[in-house]
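This part of the workshop introduces the protein records we will be handling. The question running through the whole workshop is how a given chain folds. To make this concrete, we reproduce a full record directly below:
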Amino acid sequence: MTTSNGYVLRVEDLKRDLRAGEVIVHALRGVTLKVRQGEFVGVIGPSGER
């Protein structure tokens, strides 16, 4: 299913903070992602989030 602007996935200003003991880790800060029908997206990086 696509929206009227052609996106099948749209994320704007995504933030994700993780706590590692006493430290706050800003894993994502203001991420925007727009994927249109027919596009392929790969996300790579170190694994380990619980």
